[in-house]
Design a protein that fits this description.
Length: 236
């Protein structure tokens, strides 16, 4: 069942297109990897999908299984955000803000949801720790728990392993894969194409030409072969 359909989308700023001709469909339970060169418009697409900015043209349609506000978001962190002076519990709880309406406090249901997601991410022992004192991998687990408090259905992840060492990267990929197997739909921007292709089900390639298909179709396409060759060359 389709939960998100994008038709001929053009994204950018002040009428200036950064990327265009973007069409793809995400079904419940998919794991979509969004790839492309730096500046190709990947993050702009994510912000448009989240309605943080309007598309220049095209359509974004939600299926019956996903409403507009049912998407959790893990953005790229800035240096200032990494230094945020709040406890782990406070940050995870803030993901429940869409649920509390006009109430000026968190209720029992929100506190139980935050506790449940801290347990899922393995960060319960860190609940009272200050966020800025955590390692990069621990901080990403906190932000994942926060995003899961906003939704149980779909997560948008913007470079979630950026700056992490290989061991922590592998652990985070396995954690995200487990969430996907539990039924959470994943849309992830990643520069680590070689690593993420082990996990994803579909690929959206944004560039001069837009390509969308299954992982197997992408690996056998000219777009996929050319991009992977460039990636491999950059590691030499």
């Amino acid at each position: 069942m389709s939960c998100l359909t994008v038709k001929d989308l053009k994204v950018g700023y002040d009428g200036h297109a950064v990327a265009e001709g973007i069409s793809f469909q995400v079904n419940a339970g998919d794991y979509l990897c969004i790839v492309g060169e730096n500046g190709s418009g990947k993050s702009t697409l994510i912000r448009t999908l989240l309605h943080l900015q309007e598309p220049i043209s095209g359509e974004i349609l939600y299926g019956e299984d996903l409403k507009r506000g049912e998407i959790g978001y893990l953005p790229q962190q800035t240096v200032v955000q990494r230094d945020f002076p709040a406890s782990v519990r406070e940050i995870v709880l803030s993901g429940c803000l869409p649920h509390i309406g006009i109430r000026p406090f968190y209720g029992k249901a929100e506190k139980e949801l935050a506790a449940e997601n801290m347990e899922r991410m393995g960060i319960t022992p860190l609940a009272n720790r200050c966020y800025r004192d955590l390692s990069g991998g621990q901080q990403q687990r906190v932000l994942l728990a926060r995003a899961l408090c906003a939704t149980k259905k779909c997560l948008l992840l913007d470079e979630p392993v950026a700056g992490l060492d290989p061991k922590v990267t592998a652990e985070l990929y396995e954690l995200i894969e487990r969430l996907n197997k539990e039924g959470v739909t994943i849309l992830m921007i990643s520069h680590d194409v070689g690593g993420i292709l082990s996990y994803c089900s579909h690929v959206l390639h944004i560039g001069k030409k837009v390509y969308f298909g299954t992982k197997e179709e992408y690996l056998n396409s000219s777009a996929g072969k050319a991009f992977l060759a460039v990636q491999e060359g950059g590691r030499d």
